[in-house]
Amino acid sequence: MTRRNWLSAAGAAAQVVSAQAQTSGISDAVIANANRGVENLLGRQVLDPKSRFRGGIADADGLFSHGTVGAIVEVFGAAYLCDRTKYYKNPLLIERMQLAVDWVMRGISKEGNIDLPITNFNSTPDTAFFTNPVATIAVLARRYKAPEVTAIVEPLLRRVGQGLLHGGVHTPNHRWVVTSALAQLHELFGGTEYLNRANQWLNEGIDMDPDGQFSERSTTVYNTVSDRGLTIAAIKLKRPDLLEYVRRNLDSMMYLLHPGNEVVTEISKRQDKNVRAKPDRYWFPAKYLAVQDNNGLYEAFAQAGINGQQLSLLLEYPELQKPVQAKPLPENYVKVFPTVGIGRIRRGKTSATLQFTGADRVFCLRRGDVVMNGIRFASAFFGKAQFIPTSGGPKGKGYEFTQSLEGPYYQPLDAKPEPPIIYHDQWGASWKNRKKSGICKLTQSATVTEDANGFSVRIQASGTDDVPLAVEISLAPGGVLEGCEKLKGEDQYLLPEGKTASYRVGSDVLKFGPGLSETQYVNVRGALPKLDGTSVYLTGYTPFDRTIRFEWA
User: Fold this and answer.
1) Consecutive 10-residue runs of the chain (553 residues): their mean pLDDT?
2) Counting Cβ atoms within 10 Å, is residue 194 exposed (0-12), middle (13-18) or buried (19+)?
3) Which single residue of 96, 248, 343, 515 could bond 495 by disulfide (Cβ 3.0 to 4.6 Å)?
4) Cβ 453 vs Cβ 532: under 8 Å
């Protein structure tokens, strides 16, 4: 069966009306989590009839976002419609959903949008995020013959549909959230308006690079938003071609997992950069394609993100309940992403990430539970010598990163034909007209090589002599450090000349050295602030040439 025929058959099956939800393939853990979710939201929902926020839920800062009502409707609606939850057909959930929706309806803008009070107002993208889960409950209410739920959610969806038909977006992923919401409304209400608007966005093409990453490279947040949006759009609009982009992203992500299935986030251009997280948000697209393609790797990826399961989606797409035989995810490879500009190395419980250009953390390393956030260095060269390579990549048996800098001095402007006057806002602009003199130069580089029991990082800096330099080795909190000397700053240590340090987390140990401690000048002027966690430093002067060995105990 072709993918197109399969998708058509799956879409047709989803339209079959049933008075009873299909739940035999839903785990007890999902049901228990759904019950806990209801209990949590019931306890937090504002019920005071005098409150302007009646029906809403406050966040940790005391703000009320209409977007949370999407979660209320989704959690309450799924539990109400699923006969295995303890809230099945409980009228209290109808009452509480109505309260939540009433609050949103009071606050929707004249254009049909909601606000996200921390940043976006009259926001079509946030309206789309909100619409997706509410539309899922609307589909389920029709399928399982629950007019009492339909009466609550469908008027709301028609209202916000106006915002989705006419509003704009901020970021690339917003297009696919809006598109999927429009696709859901088209499925519910028919006509051509929603379909035409969805196609306007889709006609721009999908923002995926040759390495299988969306343009924001947000590996735990906006990749997943795009994957989910495109999966829903593919199903609802009968556009299986859109699933090819989801496959490509999942195929890429197979090589962006650390031991324990944490996601590599160093490449992100968004708020999840360098954040530690599991692939839970990939569960829906990965599981959907695992079933559709009978793909064991996608199944394994979905299992890695198993905490992302949602009762509402398991009900709307009962095919997600189908078991698929998982295959082991890649754990022994060298993978270069030339467009993204990184290299990835996995050797079982060892995971290394190399960033070739534009990043201060050129080399990040994990060994089991030991996490080295990154190694980086800076020279006290005119306040601008944080090492951020401008070129880099595979070279010979390793990887090389380079940066070249100049520190010029500027001569007076030519006084002919008349003396120049430099006003307060013209100093920088005047540089291009000044002659340079006394130019100092500095070339910095790092070379990373792998061998059987670890990695070597050679750091070099030369050109101008006697420039202080500090190498920072940043370690994630939670371990025991030995072999270093405490510095004045919090969680700052010096690795003495010739010594080897060890960092232990549980049964995993990372050793590194030999040390160098010619100064205690570790907070170099112009360098980036110290990374979170424990920082171990090596210090010296240019010309600098030091190889640091990282190996396992």
Assistant:
1) 42 47 91 98 96 95 93 98 97 98 96 92 95 98 97 98 96 97 98 97 97 96 97 98 98 97 95 93 98 98 97 97 97 97 96 96 96 97 95 95 96 85 89 93 98 95 97 96 92 96 97 97 95 96 98 88
2) buried
3) 515
4) no
